[in-house]
Amino acid sequence: MPPRRSLSLTVLASGSKGNCIHIDDGETAILIDAGFSCKEITRRMELYNISPKKLSAIILSHEHGDHVTAAGVLSRKFNIPVYGTTGTLNAAGNKTGTLFQRKDITSGVPFAVDRFLIHPFSISHDAADPTGFTISSACAKIGIATDLGIATTLVKAHLMGCHALVLEANHCPDMLDRGPYPWALKQRVKSRAGHLSNTAARDLLGELANPSLSHVILAHLSEKNNLPEKANRIVGEALDQTTTKLFTACQPAPLAPIRLTMPAARPLCA
Ligand SMILES: [Zn+2]
Ligand SMILES: [Zn+2]
Known about the structure:
Layout: E1 6-13, E2 20-24, E3 29-32, H1 38-47, E4 55-59, H2 65-68, H3 71-78, E5 81-85, H4 86-96, E6 101-105, E7 111-113, E8 116-122, E9 131-136, E10 141-145, H5 153-159, E11 164-168, H6 173-178, H7 183-190, H8 198-208, E12 215-219, H9 228-236, E13 245-248, E14 258-261
Parallel strand pairs: 3-4, 4-5, 5-6, 10-11, 11-12, 12-13
Antiparallel strand pairs: 1-2, 1-14, 2-3, 7-8, 8-9, 9-10
Helix pairs in contact: 8-9
The chain binds zinc ion (2 copies).
Domain Metallo-beta-lactamase: 17-220
InterPro entries: Metallo-B-lactamas, RibonucZ/Hydroxyglut_hydro, WalJ/YycJ-like
Protein name: MBL fold metallo-hydrolase
């Protein structure tokens, strides 16, 4: 079978009320996280003619409700295996219930889902064993890192050389300080196990920008402590000298699919 030469990336929703990303090369389709209702996820999929019946995997980054809410229902309804670290799957168990199939993965150990090679890596967040991911297909490498308090050297190493990135730009520190959250929650968001600010995302992106990076999607924006235009402006500073396209995902509506085509790219996996 010839390697596929395009990959579609659709952020169905992103934010503290629910996260779900669809990736499809025409042969294999996966979801990263399924953090809002099954009904709403399938409704948003229908908008782009995405069928849940074609999903080969649901891969969970961590057990927080905004990432796992519909994982169990989707898994049982459409016979989809659910992947996650043992810590994540154990901690998510009371939210997901019984899964069609449980697939334990290990941080740092790559695994294959059909034609995708997926590399989970540890992120700093207040969950049992949270991970970010890179997903490599025959034509492109996508990096996903949301829900991380700091961008460690390990995170940077994994996200190097991506063609597309879904990157957290959670809050504006000033808005968070002046905003409505109770003190303890503000401290949690700002902590090493919390969420990445606009300026931290900009600094990270500054290190990751490369000529092959065609698309960046800002994700997991706080609805109370950030504004899309502010995140776009600040994080976008890292892309000033590049041709990389910058998008911002939001909670109420999906971001239209982004198609990555790399006709000249050397296959990353067979
Ligand atoms: Zn989250
Ligand atoms: Zn979280």
